[in-house]
């Protein structure tokens, strides 16, 4: 029974093991490092390479917790406090929230200078490409 529980735990962890940072296929952004993505999502930079990022798209719930933990090594409450300070100072606008993978795909496709993330690999013909694949 103990080994069954361990296998179940490992399989559950495996199911939630990847994060895909995505951009439009029409985007000049192609591949980026995790530090660059962290800088954009924390409002430290507005560019990836030499490309201006017009729209930063965020998720909600467990996907958001996992993303910020993997990319910034911060908890969700730390990220919320960080953005509250920035918004209060009036210096930055927090990333736009998107509630589903489909919604993320639609927003990324319509804006070639947007960036977002998904927990499932986007289909090959989806109109987006993966710029960073994070294995947790």
Automatic annotation (TrEMBL):
The keyword Signal applies. Residues 1-17 form the signal peptide. Keywords: Signal. This is Phosphate ABC transporter substrate-binding protein.
């Amino acid at each position: 029974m103990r080994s069954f529980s361990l296998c179940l735990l490992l399989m559950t962890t495996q199911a939630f093991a990847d994060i895909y940072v995505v951009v439009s296929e029409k985007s000049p952004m192609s591949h980026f490092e995790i530090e660059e993505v962290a800088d954009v999502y924390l409002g430290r930079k507005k560019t990836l390479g030499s490309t201006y990022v017009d729209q930063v798209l965020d998720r909600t719930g467990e996907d958001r917790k996992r993303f910020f933990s993997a990319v910034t090594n911060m908890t969700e409450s730390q990220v919320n406090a960080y953005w509250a300070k920035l918004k209060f100072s009036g210096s930055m606008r927090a990333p736009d929230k998107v509630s589903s993978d489909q919604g993320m795909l639609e927003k990324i496709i319509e804006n070639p200078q947007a960036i977002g993330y998904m927990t499932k690999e986007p289909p090959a013909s989806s109109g987006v490409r993966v710029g960073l694949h994070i294995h947790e």
